[in-house]
Amino acid sequence: MGSSARNFTKFINIALKVLISLIVISSFIKLIDYCKNGIQPFNIAMTLVFIGLAVLLYIKTRDKYNKKIVLSLILLGALLIRIAWILSINSRPISDFRIIYESGSHFLEGSYGAFKGTGYIARFPHLTVLVLYFAFIQKFFAYPLMVIKIFNALFSTLNVLFIYLIAKEVFNNERKALWGAFITALYPPLITYVAVYCTENIAIPFYLASVYYFILVMKHKKKDTWLLFSALLLSIGNLFRMVAPVMVIAYLMYLFIYGEKKLKDKGKSALYILGGFLIPLILVSNLLRVLDITEFQLWKGSEPSWTSVLKGTNIEHGGRWNEEDAALPDKYDGDYEKVEKAAKEVIRHRLTSTPKGELAKFYARKYIFQWIEGDFSGTYWAKEGVEEKDIKLDLEKNAVVYMQMFYCILLFLAYKGLFNKKQYLDNPIINLFYIIFCGYGLLYLITESQDRYSFIVCWLFLILALTAGERTKLWKD
Q1: CA distances from 54 to 70, 82, 332, 390, 474 (A)
Q2: pTM tops 0.70
Q3: What is the 8-class DSSP label of residue 305?
Q4: Average pLDDT per consecutive 10 residues, the chain (477 residues; last block may be shorter)
Q5: CA distance to 69, 127, 145, 192, 336, per residue, from 452 (Å)
Q6: Hey, which residues does 89 pair with through a beta bridge?
Q7: H helices within 89-143, ranges in order?
Q8: d(CA 79, CA 252)
Q9: Region of 464 on the Ramachandran plot (φ > 0 left; ψ -120 to 50 alpha; else beta)
């Protein structure tokens, strides 16, 4: 690692020691608040089950073991847990997800109104591919809602495999990779969200697969042309959850800061990444317009993105969705330029008229609340709108302490890893994940905030937790 890369690494490390400590402290405070409201027996049972499984994994991998069998059992267990969860709750599409699902039904009937003018999908065209995905399932399956959730369970189980593969490459340690798979299999948000009809379920496996192949190229295990494939996977994931440009920027930053090749070769690699990401996005977007399905490009709808930034600056509502800011487009009859101009003026007024101290507190709170929730509100979205008789296992009521405790432990281990110089200085690839976290942290400070939004990269903490305890027998191969 060169001096400039080393200095950048130290700077990021110092910044994250402050930033992640805020989440750690706040998450533990939230855990204490949950405990004050009472600890349901189910929380204790789940904790004991987790400890029992962890002890079993430790024993099985202590000496000689068959890694394929252990990994297969973890994957099978992960799938069964997710299937059990979706069978325990008859979740329905609500809020935006209901509109998206119904738009899929209308699409099958030949009605494209949602994609045109000021229709909901036209305003937020990044949801288009999910609409078409729902339409496809509704056309070919008799019970589409259950099929969607089963597919979600399969996608979520794939996440376990990809975390295993990524951890194996990042840490060069088979046992640590198996532990990564184990905690991924039991990670609350990756379980609870399989019952939610959101884009992230499909997008996350593509994000992770992209990261895996990017790492292989950075470790010289694959030729640079494989960056095209990595970027293509990311582009597919982006079609479902369109926040992958942050990942692209992280890839480019890592390439130029930590890459070992000459500047010319780095430039060529950068073109592979940009081309592999942008070309599929442009082709799909324009194909949908040629077929007269959509009116606008997938990345630019009839409502300017500044309205999201506008909501993100609303101090009274914590930078979250609110009726006041959401009504701005209607005030100007959906006129794109007028809405954009008005949004910018309100944003400018809020940022310049608010005392700096109050503004700093607002953004500190907004940052903390974005990352504080142990299951990233997965149980809320799964349970919302469901009658009590359709809920066999209420995780929001019975498992919140366990889920928050799980998350707190992950955060603590991730924070502990920031003091492990053997990782962030001697193993530069780990800095890719720190850069990604910083990127999304900044994105959600700028735009509208929701617990669900950070779910797309909740897997970061699984990798970062493995940076702790490098010299312990637990990780020793």
Answers
A1: 12, 19, 57, 32, 11
A2: yes
A3: T
A4: 86 95 97 92 94 92 86 97 96 93 95 92 95 97 96 98 97 94 97 96 98 96 97 98 97 94 92 98 97 94 94 95 91 91 96 95 96 94 92 92 97 94 84 97 95 95 90 48
A5: 34, 15, 20, 12, 27
A6: 391
A7: 95-108, 120-123, 128-140
A8: 34
A9: alpha
